[in-house]
Design a protein that fits this description.
The protein contains 15 helices and eleven strands. By secondary structure, it is of the alpha/beta class. It has three domains: 52 residues, no CATH class; 111 residues, no CATH class; 156 residues, Rossmann fold (3-Layer(aba) Sandwich), CATH 3.40.50.300. Helix 12 crosses helix 13 and helix 12 crosses helix 14.
Length: 358
């Protein structure tokens, strides 16, 4: 285990691996994870017979800190047969793989949608801690898209605006007479400035007097957890006052993308690329799926979509399968490099396919 002074310090580490952010937590949190009864018995002779219970407790402890232990083992893909994408949908095209995360985010979505229909005089403020790359902006956008023209939607990124721009953007919110959903992204940005929360505070009370709902989603990623982010926010000017205006039931966590989440994204991007190109894609070779899901260079949806389009373009006319070789231009050394790296353990992924059902 590596120990660092701060979140900023760990991200400057030369061996920092963004895809492993699930495991970055304060030492005090790790101490709690490994303090359970099963961990204290690890030197007992029959300890390995409790491996399943050990792993379950480990994952449960991580979830309590808003973390998800990713499944990096290839057997997860080897055991896949049919993936029904709608089964994992939370709202619109936003999907998550793990059952607990799926249902917790459905609850969050439902709370936000219900607030947009609530005309009572009450605060409709939400706080979301989201791991980097977990799609918090896309989550809010899909909630808005799913509601059609029923309300207005705005986005303000605190990290990208100056004080005057922030003031003007917030003032524009209350000028709308329609129900309005606003995502205030990077709510934990500008920690050394005194104006952000001072400016924002009156708008957190706006729904007490408005005739139509104003729902504010404040989202950030610092502090390694929801509690850690709240502690950082609380010590800022007006930070405690801001947090006191967010009901406890309106505070949610969007955990990091797990290996299963990346598989869902990969499959949906291949299917979408096929629709755009008029080339139906129903199957993806498991070795290719394994490669894409582990590729750190395909870290966001835009990069992944462009990659998927190029791969589908290489699929011969009349074939509805994306093969591993379709992922690379002829002669690309990356094709051979990855195969040599995984061939000793992933032979069963070759010429075996996952079926996509939309």
């Amino acid at each position: 285990m590596n120990i660092f002074r701060s979140e900023e310090h760990v991200k400057r580490w030369s061996l920092y691996y963004r895809m492993a952010e699930d495991y970055i937590m304060p030492v005090t949190d790790w101490a709690q994870v490994f303090s359970g009864p099963l961990f204290r018995r690890r030197l007992e002779a029959d300890y390995l017979t409790n491996a399943d219970a050990y792993f379950s407790e480990y994952q449960s402890s991580l979830r309590n800190f808003g973390k998800q232990s990713p499944f990096w083992q290839y057997p997860m893909i080897a055991g896949m047969d049919i993936v029904k994408l709608p089964r994992y949908a939370i709202v619109g095209k936003y999907t998550r793989f793990e059952e607990q995360v799926l249902n917790e985010l459905k609850d969050a979505k439902q709370s936000i949608v219900s607030s947009l229909a609530d005309v009572s005089s009450s605060r409709k403020n939400f706080l979301i801690w989201a791991a980097p790359g977990s799609g918090k902006t896309f989550f809010a956008q899909q909630i808005a898209a799913a509601q059609g023209q029923k309300f207005d939607y705005r986005e303000i990124n605190l990290a990208q605006v100056r004080e005057g721009e922030f003031v003007a953007s917030l003032a524009a919110l209350v000028q709308s007479s329609n129900p309005l959903l606003c995502l205030i992204d990077e709510i934990d940005a500008k920690p050394h400035e005194s104006w952000p929360y001072d400016v924002l505070l009156p708008y957190l009370d706006a729904s007490l007097t408005r005739h139509t709902p104003l729902v504010l989603i404040m989202a950030g990623s610092s502090g390694f957890s929801l509690q850690g982010m709240k502690e950082r926010m609380a010590v800022r000017p007006k930070g405690h006052d801001l947090l006191s205006r967010i009901p406890a039931e309106n505070q949610f966590i969007i955990p990091p993308m797990s290996f299963g989440d990346r598989i869902l994204i990969v499959l949906s991007q291949f299917a979408q690329a096929g629709h755009e190109l008029g080339h139906e894609i129903n199957f993806v070779e498991k070795l290719g799926l394994y490669y894409v899901a582990l590729n750190e260079q395909l870290a966001n949806a835009r990069q992944l979509h462009e990659f998927a389009v190029r791969a589908v373009e290489r699929v011969p006319h009349g074939d509805d399968r994306v093969k591993y070789d379709n992922l690379f231009v002829p002669g690309d050394p990356e094709n051979k490099r990855f195969w040599l790296e995984v061939s000793s353990v992933a032979q069963e992924l070759v010429n075996s396919y996952v079926t996509i059902e939309e």
